[in-house]
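Our example copied in:
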Amino acid sequence: MVEWRSELEPLAASVCLELAQAYFTDPYPGFDLDDPDWPKLRGQLAQVEVLLAAVKARL
């Protein structure tokens, strides 16, 4: 069996993992009492924009 991996996988993997962790912990009180990390959130948004542009280019 030949395994095929998209070159988009490395681009998507890190941002998906980070956003999944935020999705599962942020809605519940007590997990994060710090203020939002705006520079980190802006960086994640930029990663998502790059990923979406790469996907859009394939359509």
Q: What stands out?
A: The chain is about 65% helix and 0% strand. The helical segments are 9-25, 38-58. The mean pLDDT is 80. The two ends are 27 Å apart (CA to CA).
